[in-house]
Request: fold
Amino acid sequence: MSAYTEAAVGQMPDMTPPSPPFLKHIEQEKEAIVLNWDHSPESDVKAYNIYRFEPKDSANTYIRLNRQHLPPTANLFTDRILKHKTEYAYQLVVIDSSDNISQPSEQKRLTFLSERTDLYTFKMDVSARRNGKRVILTWHLDVEDAMDFMVYRRLAGTNEFVAISTLTQSTKFIDTSLKKGERCEYQIRAYSNNGTTYKSNSYWVERKK
Reply:
């Protein structure tokens, strides 16, 4: 009778990827975009990765934002490398202990709008003239990048500039709201497509009629 030989018992490698994670919400907080997600229900989560792309970028390429894997306990990520007036799309993936990668989460998008106006200043060629009850402002900014402008005004005796126009690409604005006897300071703020924000020198005007 021949002796039985023991069969080698091996474990099949885990080839099953984890289920896609749930990216709960994204929101802008000051000069950053904050992402929040639910912890994966998988029992062997090893890490998370965050990916981002710009929908208007013709390359349509996702980049990984975190240099190192985010730990399984993480559920928050802050993106600070942003450009003004740019839409971003985000997705999240899970990696398990066998290095299987999940399908990406549902994509979420948000347009970042910088609140900073003190990044750059420029000497603006501004001319203002009073035409009856109107103050006519014109300006010129010699830069190659496309610009959107907004007109701000500060009345004498007050501390803050207040926006008196919407975003415009025009380099002319007519203020009809300045009252007789009022003196004010005008300033133009310019927003470029590459994320740069400028503010001009100020210009004082007094309406006497």
